[in-house]
Write a structure and sequence with these properties.
The protein has eleven helices and eleven strands. The chain is globular, with a radius of gyration of 31 Å. GO terms for molecular function: oxidoreductase activity. Its main location: membrane.
């Protein structure tokens, strides 16, 4: 609609309101009407032919909104065109300076990092694997430990080892971290014994290697999500008030699958992505009053090559923690050492190995190349070889097995990553 029509409508209303007299309806001439019938909507026609002030204001507001949307579309088009290359160029030129600043910050935090002597640390999933090695690293720094896992008998031996390695005091407690009451119990016991909490280390995790479309028993789904997500959130929720008092830190055991999804790990990847995003949001909410360190690992010793758990026919699923795998040496110890060192330096992220970050560039700028690469790597494996939990298929002995990143000592058939073997455990 022509601008002259709009101004005439406004002028008519002002004259009418000023004189207090009744004016005849405004009828624009034919040449003043919009050239295309689709432009003259019912609302615009009502505003032009009716001298109602409210309808005219509403019409003008919609016109301004439409103009704003068009302006925003144009702005987004320009930003999409110029921002990515400009950002890459800026990052390329500033990369040396950023590396130098990061190195200086790392050196300063290493020299003046947090002294854990006589500090209090809660470690969930501490019965073996990553959790066990983290307990030993804190023991070397003479911290007070609260070790939490489902299997108390495993914790006793680890507690003795931690004492011999230098831990001032070690407490153990059998608890299920997916239950809020259990979390309140071990946090309250820690406060009663030590009076504070400085670090909360969540290492609980559970993976799988089955294809999503093969599952027929969906009871597996909430178990995986409960352990990988709520098993970290509940201890954080309960311990957070005490971490505020000590300006403490939360350490999370995440995984590269949180941003680099892989086949046969759909639920695990989804849970880890939710976990990382939860703590990234929490980091902003806490405003550095409580630090958060997100540790991201690739494929290490206690992962798919070893961890399993079993679902018996007609029995409730019994999940075994990732730390229940007995692992010593190699990448697990190195990853645990990096986690504790990074947490004491106040690092926001710990990555092992760090070369996985290269895939981020491909995922953002060349996702098809990354997809093709994964397909080439996976295609030689041939037909699917998965664990059979929830698929309605049975293994030798009639026990369906669910592969995962966690296990506990037990006797029976185990499914190892990508293939089936028979293995006896004490």
């Amino acid at each position: 609609m022509k601008k002259g029509v709009i101004w005439k409508v406004i002028r008519f209303h002002f004259i009418q309101n000023a004189n207090g007299k009744s004016k005849p309806r405004f009828h624009p001439s034919q040449d003043e009407l919009p050239p295309h019938p689709r432009v003259l909507t019912p609302l615009s026609a009502f505003a032009c032919y009716n001298n109602n002030t409210a309808s005219t204001i509403l019409y003008l507001s919609l016109q301004l909104l439409s103009l704003s949307l068009k302006t925003m579309d144009s702005l987004n088009f320009l930003l999409n065109l110029f921002v990515p290359p400009c950002t890459l160029l800026t990052l390329a030129f500033s990369w040396p300076a950023l590396c130098f600043l990061n190195a200086c910050e790392w050196l300063y935090n290493t020299i003046y990092g947090e002294d854990m002597d006589n500090k209090v640390v809660i470690i969930t999933g501490a019965s073996s694997g990553i959790g066990e090695q983290i307990a030993y690293e804190y023991a070397l720094r003479r911290a007070n430990l609260m070790l939490v896992a489902r299997r108390e008998h495993r914790l006793r031996g680890i507690a003795e080892n931690a004492r011999r390695m230098g831990a001032r005091h070690v407490m153990i407690m059998a608890a299920d971290v997916v239950k809020e009451d259990d979390c309140r119990r071990f946090v309250n016991e820690t406060i009663n014994a030590y009076g504070r909490v400085d670090h909360l280390v969540n290492t609980v995790s559970l993976g799988h290697t089955f294809c999503f479309e093969e599952v027929t028993d969906t009871t597996v789904f909430p178990v995986l999500l409960d352990i990988n997500f709520w098993g970290n959130v509940y201890p954080t929720f309960v311990a957070l008030p005490y971490l505020h008092q000590s300006n403490g830190r939360i350490i999370i055991n995440a995984s590269v699958e949180s941003w680099l999804p892989l086949p046969r790990m759909s639920l695990y990847a989804a849970a880890k992505a939710a976990l990382v995003n939860f703590y990234e949001t929490l980091r902003f909410e806490l405003r550095d009053e409580v630090g958060i360190t997100i540790a991201t690992h690739g494929w290490i010793g206690s992962e798919m090559t070893r961890g399993k758990f079993m679902l018996e026919e007609g029995a409730e699923m019994q999940w075994k923690e990732e730390r229940e795998v007995h692992v010593t040496g190699g990448p697990v110890e190195e990853f645990a050492r990096l986690i504790v060192s990074g947490a004491c330096r106040g690092d926001a992220y710990v990555k092992f190995p760090s070369w996985y970050d290269v895939f981020l560039l491909y995922r953002v700028f060349a996702p098809r190349v990354l997809n093709w690469a994964f397909r080439l790597l996976i295609s030689p494996l041939g037909t699917r070889r998965t664990s059979y939990v929830g698929t309605g298929r049975s293994l030798e002995g009639g026990r369906p097995m669910l592969e995962g990143t966690s296990t506990a000592p037990h006797t029976g058939s185990l499914t190892f990553s990508g293939h089936l073997i028979q293995h006896k455990l004490d």
